[in-house]
């Protein structure tokens, strides 16, 4: 899919609402990515106790202001959610890569449109950063560590997606049982326990602080 996505770099970004997806509540469906890379200067530290020390994430500016966010946009009827996430990331930030984990779904109200949206976010390991892309002239892109990104990102729901990203990157691999199948029940219990703890703590931002050095 990367080659197919990359071919869109010379095309104008999609616009209009004719093919836009909505759910049964009338919420507009949007999808985006947290693009990330490993800082080559820190690759020798991959065995370090802090598994996020060498990771940087990519934010982009709004078309109308300098505020920063992760790339996202409308999911359309003629594409699956993975293609939509990759397309929007290419159009807005000019990177292509390997789509990884779905980080979750969030319902939020758009300030500009005064309508509810439902957003899905994925992690993406960037494999190529393009010099030219559809929205190059209306956005700037900035690489940051995750703590800087948490402070800079303007949208609360994207900050929560970043916290999910941190958890996914920091947690140990899922152990395999004797027949080679993932111990999914234990994984689900772990995630549920973590979710309850975060709600009890009342401060999800502590998750990033626990893994990123000040």
How would you characterize this protein structure?
This protein is an alpha+beta fold and 214 residues long. It has helices at residues 2-6, 81-93, 146-152, 156-170, 184-201, 206-211, and strands at 28-38, 55-61, 68-69, 72-74, 95-109, 116-129, 141-144. The longest helix has 18 residues, at 184-201. The radius of gyration is 18 Å and the shape is globular.
Average residue pLDDT: 82
Largest sheet: 7 strands, mixed
Q: Pick out the low-confidence regions.
A: 188-202
Total number of helices: 6
Summed up:
With 214 residues, the protein is an alpha+beta fold. The protein is 30% helix and 26% strand. Strands 1, 2, 3, 4, 5, 6 and 7 form a seven-stranded mixed sheet that branches.
Helices, strands, pairings?
Elements: H1 2-6, E1 28-38, E2 55-61, E3 68-69, E4 72-74, H2 81-93, E5 95-109, E6 116-129, E7 141-144, H3 146-152, H4 156-170, H5 184-201, H6 206-211
Parallel strand pairs: 1-6
Antiparallel strand pairs: 1-2, 1-4, 2-3, 2-7, 5-6
Helix pairs in contact: 3-4
């Amino acid at each position: 899919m990367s080659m197919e996505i990359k071919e869109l770099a010379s095309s104008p970004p999609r616009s209009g609402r004719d093919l836009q997806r909505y759910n049964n509540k009338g919420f507009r469906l949007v999808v985006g990515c947290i693009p990330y890379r490993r800082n080559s200067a820190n690759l020798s530290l991959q065995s370090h106790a802090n598994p996020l020390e060498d990771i940087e994430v990519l934010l982009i500016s709004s078309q109308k202001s300098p505020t920063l966010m992760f790339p996202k946009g409308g999911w359309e009827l003629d594409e699956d959610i993975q293609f939509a996430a990759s397309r929007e990331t290419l159009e807005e930030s000019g990177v292509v890569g390997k789509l990884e984990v779905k980080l979750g779904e969030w319902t939020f109200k758009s300030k500009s449109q005064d309508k509810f949206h439902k957003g899905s976010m994925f992690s993406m390991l960037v494999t190529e950063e393009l010099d030219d892309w559809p929205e190059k002239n209306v956005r700037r892109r900035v690489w940051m560590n995750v703590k800087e990104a948490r402070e800079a990102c303007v949208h609360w729901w994207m900050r929560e997606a970043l916290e999910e990203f941190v958890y996914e990157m920091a947690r140990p691999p899922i152990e395999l049982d004797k027949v080679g199948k993932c111990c999914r029940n234990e994984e689900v219990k772990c995630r549920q326990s973590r979710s309850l703890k975060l709600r009890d703590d009342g401060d999800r931002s502590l998750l990033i602080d626990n893994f990123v050095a000040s």
